[in-house]
Amino acid sequence: MTPAAIKPLVTIDALQAIDVRVGTIESVDEIARSRKLVKLRVNFGDHTRQILAGLKQERDEPAEITGRQALFVVNLSPKTMAGELSEGMLFDIGYADGVRPVLSVPEAAVPNGTRAG
C-alpha cells in the first residue's frame, strides 16, 4: 500500500472541535434494508448511543466486535440512514486507503466515555 497524501493543514482549534471518545460495543444488529450497515449499541459510561457502521462487507462476522472498546466520534449531527438513526461514527483505520478496516482501540481498557486527544 502506498500511503495517501497528507490532507491540508488544520488549526488546533479545528482538531479540538472533534470529540472522539472510547465506548464499549454492547451489541451489533443487522439492518435488513442495508447491504453495508449494521447497528451498534455503544456504551459511553453515562449514556448509550446507536451508531451505524458499514461493517457488513468488511467483516465475515460483524458481531465479533461485541464487547470490544473502540473510538467513536460523538459530536456529529445525527443522521438517518437505511431508516435508522446514527448518533456518531465509528473511528476505524484503513477504510479510506482501501485496506480492510480495523477498529481504533485503546492500548488497555479505560472507562467508557474517556476522551481521545
Tell me what you see in this structure.
With 117 residues, the chain is mostly beta strands. It has a domain at 23-103: OB fold (Dihydrolipoamide Acetyltransferase, E2P) (Beta Barrel), CATH 2.40.50.140. The protein contains one helix and nine strands. It has one helix spanning 12-16; strands spanning 20-30, 38-43, 48-53, 69-73, 79-81, 84-86, 89-90, 92-93, 102-103. A hairpin with a 2-residue loop joins strand 5 and strand 6. The protein is globular and about 40 Å long. 20% of the residues are buried.
> So how many helices?
1
What is the β-strand count?
9
Mean pLDDT: 95
Would you identify the regions where 5 or more consecutive residues have pLDDT less than 50? Answer: none
Q: Rounded to an integer, what's the Rg over CA atoms? A: 15 Å
Oligomer: single chain
Largest sheet, strands/sense/barrel: 5 strands, antiparallel
Please render the helix and strand layout as text.
Elements: H1 12-16, E1 20-30, E2 38-43, E3 48-53, E4 69-73, E5 79-81, E6 84-86, E7 89-90, E8 92-93, E9 102-103
Antiparallel strand pairs: 1-2, 1-4, 2-3, 4-7, 5-6, 8-9
